[in-house]
Amino acid sequence: METMLCDYLKNSARMYFGLTPIEVRTLAYELGMKNNLKLPENWMEHCMAGEDWLRGFLKRHRNEVALRLPEATSIARASSFNEKNVTLFYDNLKAVRERYKFEAKDVWNVDETGCTTVQKPPKVIAQTGVKQVGAITSSERGQLVTVCCAVNAVGQSIPPVFIFPRVYFKDHFIRDAPAGSAGTAHPSGWMTSDNFTFFLRHFVKQVIAIYLLFYCLMACK
Fold this sequence. Notes:
Layout: H1 2-14, H2 21-34, H3 41-46, H4 51-60, H5 75-80, H6 83-100, E1 108-116, E2 144-152, E3 161-164, E4 182-185, H7 193-220
Parallel strand pairs: 3-4
Antiparallel strand pairs: 1-2, 2-3
């Protein structure tokens, strides 16, 4: 029965409806009641399995299930990731690769991430019993800065693009950024259609420079 319960938990998690510890304990109690098992008194009193059972269950099946923190996933994203859409994507990808003869260096992955201007301080050793321990940072609340990067299938990358939460961009914002980086501004600090167009122009400029350098090196050989 624990094996069946373990399989059910794994299937639920794969469908983005994983069960919380309380729900697992309740399900274990209902499973025992349906199968007319002799259950402990505390199970009958609280209508759920005990915490000690859950710890033992996770220990017995530690190679299959564990307590994990799920990543928030929208319904649209979860419902779109199905066999039909994935098959259609790879069919289109195969047709495009065969038509244009793309090589690994021509396949680029672009992604964006948010960075805060205030980093979380590490743990420190302080006096026992003190109610609050502080650490100096540039500010208590940071601002979001979006960073957009691109890497191709052979490991080549281009300098990133920074999107600052400002109305106007100033050159000194990227003074200490990697060489060749570019920056722009938007009041929210998020990626928008205009900012993405700016990134595409930066991408084309950097990729052409990479290819020119590659061909120059090949010519020298």
